[in-house]
Amino acid sequence: MRVLRWVFQIAVVGAVVGLLLVLIGNVRSNSSELGIPTGYDYLDNPAGFPIADSDFNQRQPVRDAIRIGVINTLRVSLIGIVLATVLGTLIGLARLSQNWLLRNAARVYVEVIRNIPLLLIVIFAYAGIALVLFPRITEPWEPLGIAIISNRGVVVPWHDASGWGIVAVGAVAGVVAWLVARLRRRHADRTGTPARSGLWGGVAFAVVAAAGWLLVGADVTLPELAGRGTTGGIRMSPEFFAILFALVVYTASHIAEIVRGSIQAVPRGQAEAASALALSGFQRSWFVVLPQAFRIAVPPLGNQYLNLTKNSTLGSAVSYFELAQVTSISVANGAPAVPSYLLTLLIFLAISLVLSLVVNVVNRRLALVER
Amino acid sequence: MPRISRNWLTLFAASALLFSACTSDDDDGSAADTAAAGDTAAPADTAPAGEEGGGAAGETLAAVQEADVVRCGTRDDLPGFATVDANGDHVGFDADFCRVIAAAVLGDATKVEFVDVATEDRFTALQSGEIDVLVRNTTWTATRDGTEGVTFLQPTFYDGQGMMVAADSGITDLAGLEGGVVCVAAGTTTEGNVATEFERLGLQVPEIQSFDDVNLLQQAFQEGRCDGWSSDRSQLTGLRSNYPDGPDALVILEGTFSKEPLAPGVRDGDSQWAQAVEWAVFATIQAEEFGITSENVDQEQESDNPSIRGFLGSEVEGDEGAAVLDPGLGLPTDFAFQVISQVGNYGEIYEEHITPLGLDRGTNALWTDGGLLYAPPYR
C-alpha cells in the first residue's frame, strides 16, 4: 500500500513537470517560428516610451523601466499599508465604540466600501475626485501658501534631498531611539516605575532627527508655480493619489473588520479581570486587551497587506506606472510578451514572499510560548 | 470601463502561444493534409514544427477560406477609422479595409469578424492567431517589423504626428508647452516621438502622461490634466470632430513631427496570405487610378482597355478562347471586381470616412496627383 502511494505521488509530480516542459517547449518553438525572441536580451533594448512622474526617458533600457515599475509598486504598497492600517484600526475601534453615531457610521463605511469592486473605487478616485474636485493648475489652491494643490498633483515642501545625508540622520536617530527605549525598560525593570519606552523613544528620535537635519543643512524647497506646472517641493501625481486613495480606503474596510473581530475574540474574562484589578479604561485596553488582540490580528492582517500589494496592479487603470503597467506598455513597445509577463510574475512572487516572511517572523515572535 | 480587462487580454493571448500546439495535435490528420496541399500549391519548405504555429506558408489563406470569414483586428473608438454605429456595425476607414480583404479573398465583403483589440495587445493578438490581419492604424516601424512577429504591407494611410491644444490655452507652438503636460495614448509610437521632437527643437521636454484608454485621456484633457494632446494628425482630427465641447474648443498646431505610415499587418512567415492581403489593398488604389468606382464597375467590365478588363477578371480579348488573367495570388480572378463593387476604390473609401473629418488627401493622393499611393501593375 505504502509503495503504491509513493508510485502515485511520483507519477503526479512527473506528469506536472512533463506538462510544464511541453508548454515551455511550445512557447519556444511557436515564438521562434514567428520570429519573436524568447530570451531576456530585450531588457537592454531602448524602452521606447517615457514614464510620467520619473526621470525615465525613452532611450533608457527596458531594464530601467522595470526597475521604476518595481519602485512605484513598492512605493504605493508600503505607504498604502501604513495608511490602511491606521485608518482601518481607527474604524475598527469606532465599530466598538459606545457612541451610537460613531459606531454606526463605521459600520456603514465598512459595509459599503467592502462591497464595491476595487476597480470602481480606483476609477472613481481618479475620474471623480483627483481630476474633478481638485482645481485646474491655472487656479490652484495654495493652503497657507506652502502647498500647491491642483489636478496636476499635490505639491508640498520637502527636504532638498540630494544624497544620503538625510538617510544617515534617520538611521542615527533610529538607533538612538532604540537605545533610549531599551534603557527605559531596564530602568523600569529595576525600579518598577512605568517604562513609557515608546514616548521616550519617540522624543529621542524627534530630537536627534531635528538636530541632525539642521546639521546637514535643513534645506527645504518650497513649491512654486512655474508656467503650466510647479517647481520645488515634492509632488504627488493625481494618478498616484487615485490608486493610493482607493487601496487605502478599500483595504481599511477589511482591516477594520479584522481589528474588531480580534478585539472581540479576546476572552471577556481578561477585561473583567483587569477591571477587578482596578485598572483604568485606558490601561485595560492598552495593557490587557489590545496586546492579545494584536496577536490574533497579525495573520489576517498579513493577508490584507499581500492583497493590497497585489491590488496595486489596478494602478494601470489610471495610468499609474506600477510594475504591471510598465510590463504591459513595454510589451506594446516590442518586448516579447511571454518572457515579460513571466518576469513580472516572478517579481510579484518575490515581493509577496518577502512580505509574508516578515509577517511570519512577527507572528512567531508574538505567538504565545507554549510548553 | 471595459478596457482594463482587455489590458490583461495580452496574458490570455500569450497563453495561446502555450497551448496552440496542443490544440493542433488533436487534428493531426487534417494538419498533415493541409501541409501536403501546401506542398503542391507553393514550394513550401515547411518544417514539421512549422505547421503548428499558424504562421506557416499558405496556412492562413487556407484557414480563412475554410472558416469562410476573415478575422480582422480593429477597434471601436476612433472616429473616421473604426467606430461602432447604433446597429453594432463597425464603420470607418480601417473597417472598410477589413471588408476589402474579405471581398477579395472570400468574394463577400460582409464575411468579416471584427475583433476589437487594445493598442498594447494588438501584436500579441496577431502572433497568437486570434486575428488573421491587423488593420488598426498601426505605424510601420523597424522595431515592430523586427521583433513583433508582424509583416507590414502596403500602407493604407500616410500619417504624421501632430499636437492638439485647447483653443483658449493661448498656446500657438510647441515652445508654449514647455513646463506643461502632454497626454498621449499608451503603447503607441506617439509616446516616444513627443520627447524626441522637443529635444530636436532644443526645448525642455514636457511631462508626458500616457493613458491606456482614449476616453479617460479625453476626460483628463477636458479637466485640464494636460495642456497638449499628441497623436497622429488623422486621429487628432477625428477626436476633435467628436469632442464634447465642440471641435472649435480645440486647435491642432501647425507642423507634423514624425512619419507614421499606417499599414495592415499579417503574421511573419506566410507570404501567400501577405500577398493576398496586399493585393486587396493595391486593388483599391489601382481602381482609382483606372477611374473605376463602385458606380461604374459593371460597365468597366466591358471596357475597351485590356488592362482594365484583365484587372477586373473579365475575359481579355485577343487571347484565343478569351482567357482570364490569373496572376496566381491565390485569389479569385475577379477579386478586384468584388472589392470595387462591394466596397469601392481608395478614393471612395477616403471620401466616405476621412473627408468628413476635414482632412484632405495630401500625401494620400494617387502618385499621378502628386501623392504617395502607387500600386504595382496588375499583369
Q: Can you give a write-up of this model?
A:
The complex is a heterodimer of chains A (371) and B (379). Chain A is mainly alpha-helical and 371 residues long. Chain A has 11 helices and 7 strands. Chain A has a 3-stranded antiparallel sheet. Chain A has a two-stranded antiparallel sheet with strand order 3-4. Chain A has a two-stranded antiparallel ribbon with strand order 5-6. In chain A, strand 1 and strand 2 form a beta hairpin. The longest helix of chain A has 34 residues. Chain A starts with a helix and ends in a 5-residue tail after the last helix. The relative contact order of chain A is 0.13. With 379 residues, chain B is α/β, with parallel strands linked by helices. In chain B, 39% of the residues lie in helices and 15% in strands. Chain B has 15 helices and 15 strands. A 5-stranded mixed sheet of chain B has the order 11-10-12-9-13, with helices on both faces. A 3-stranded parallel sheet of chain B has the order 5-1-6. In chain B, strands 2-3-4 form a 3-stranded antiparallel sheet. In chain B, a hairpin with a 3-residue loop joins strand 2 and strand 3. In chain B, helix 5 packs across helix 11. Chain B is elongated. At the A-B interface, helix 1, helix 4, helix 10 and helix 11 of A face helix 2, helix 6, helix 7, helix 8 and strand 11 of B.
